[in-house]
Here is the input.
Amino acid sequence: MSLRAEALAVWAVVLRNTLMGVRNLFFFFELLFWPVVGVLSIGLMTRFLGLTPEQSAFVLVGTIALSVVNVCQLEVAYAMLLDVWSKSVKHQFMAPIGVRHLTVGAWLVGIARGLVIFVLLAVLGRWAFGFALGAPGIAVVGAFLAGCFLTAWIVGVLVCALVTIFGTRAEAFAWASVNLVLVLAGIYYPVSVLPAPMALVAKAIPLTYFLDAYRAHLGFAPEFAAPVATGFALSAVYAVLAHWAFHAAVERARRTGLLLKMSE
Amino acid sequence: MSSPGAPPPPVATLAIDARDVAKTFRAGWLGRRRTPALQGVSLTVGRSVIFGLLGPNGAGKTTLLSILATLLVPDAGTATVLGLDVVRDANALRRRLNMASGRPSFLWSLRVAEIVAFYGRLYGLHGAALARRVDALVEQYELTAYRRTPYNELSTGLKQRVALAKALVNDPELLFLDEPTLGLDPDVSVRVRQHIADLRRERGMTIVLTTHYMREAEELCDEIAFIKDGRILARGTAADLKRQIRLGDVIALKLDPPRLPWLAEAPGVLRLEESDGWVACTVDDAEKRLPELLRAFHAEGVVVRNVQVREPELEEVFVELAR
Ligand SMILES: Nc1ncnc2c1ncn2[C@@H]1O[C@H](COP(=O)(O)OP(=O)(O)OP(=O)(O)O)[C@@H](O)[C@H]1O
Ligand SMILES: [Mg+2]
Here is the structure.
């Protein structure tokens, strides 16, 4: 495929997901409601517990990361879910495109949504709890956001793969996956408090490293030597694996007939 | 299916060349429930032909179309479409074909023009060329008034037209239509059929369609294959099929005297039925037998008051084959 054709297919998906997002109130609700509730309740809890400003910031950045990952991840999952819901799956897989066009297109929309949420929550955090999310500087915040988006992409693509294997039964993964990240990536605590086996799993999650890097700038002792580089390297490996899984799932669905089942 | 003995036509002239294609769907625990949907289908379809697949519900028509459209991978056999293997060259093939079904579904909130444009982009159209194609298709399918209507607000007939517009967005060489006139009112059906015929005439498109309407098959299709239980039972023009199935032609006669004992034994006569003073005489070939019978009546001094000759309907062929 020429570069132009590649870009065009991605753009088609960007437009589609954007239009669907703009026209469905449900998606908007998702975009705003949970993140705001999350930050408010966690912020109030830190106040009740009388945490130091640093500790509060530690926890709040975790909540914000979680919201950004969740919003972006759902959008990536929509690459598949929208068509599953509307039973139009076969049309996009009859067209000469690959899964990458779907995942990249949806991811770009997810990034845009994630940025909106990030800014909103940063403003809310500042206004309600005096937490200056942007204080460590643009590079640090940029790396942190990149980590959130990459994690979201990987999780979202895996959800697409699961939906393609198990059909609508796997939809729950789309909403549950983020909670797994919550427990394992050390959203509210340093990874060192996890029991050894879980800490091992946590170390396999890219977001863990990006959170660690950001928190180092809040004055917490870093737990990893080169967190950002490690996070990017892990993300790259997982992104490739997740895409392979999604591609394999589509090819499997062509053999089992699920691709047709999801279109009738 | 080429007739035994005859050499198959060279590949380049064929739009479809499927050999021994088989597909079994597996369901349930460890895939123990098996549905053999296709059991060794061989089929050739020439270019610029309108080809009809007929057969009872669950015969495997949609399964076959899906394999040819690269949506389903066969378990066994090979299929070459437009000279490309449906499994190995799937992506190259996808550019050149498209499909619409009689039960279409698209993203509920997208508007008519947006749906056509979305798929247009997936096929590499953009900018002014895309806009022109979308406009042309919207106009051609009389969707102009609904350009900005969300998909889920459209009637069945309109949805079907959107599906057809989408299926033509890449100007395919080969078009699969799965029950294209399902649930359409007679007026719209006629126009859709007209349009299908035009596509072949004007652009030389090859069209493979399935239908449960015999009139449609007879009117549109150059050739028909009859499929049942995943096997092709017969293939040919509508006239061929009627002949192959040997349903015979019916010669209805009003005679004086009305009963002739020797008639049932006359050469070529398969069946006799009497009602309302008519004798319905089923013969193997009316063109051959009618003159013979008339000569015999004349010799016997029988007066022939009225004669009607009727070929069997495709529907009767269908019922006979589906039995
Ligand atoms: N995706 C699928 N998964 C499992 N079984 C399937 C699938 N698609 C079809 N089948 C089964 O395969 C058989 C053939 O189905 P197919 O849809 O090809 O028939 P058809 O000739 O198109 O019938 P109809 O006229 O009702 O549309 C049926 O028994 C059907 O239940
Ligand atoms: Mg069918």
Summary: Chain A has a mean pLDDT of 90.
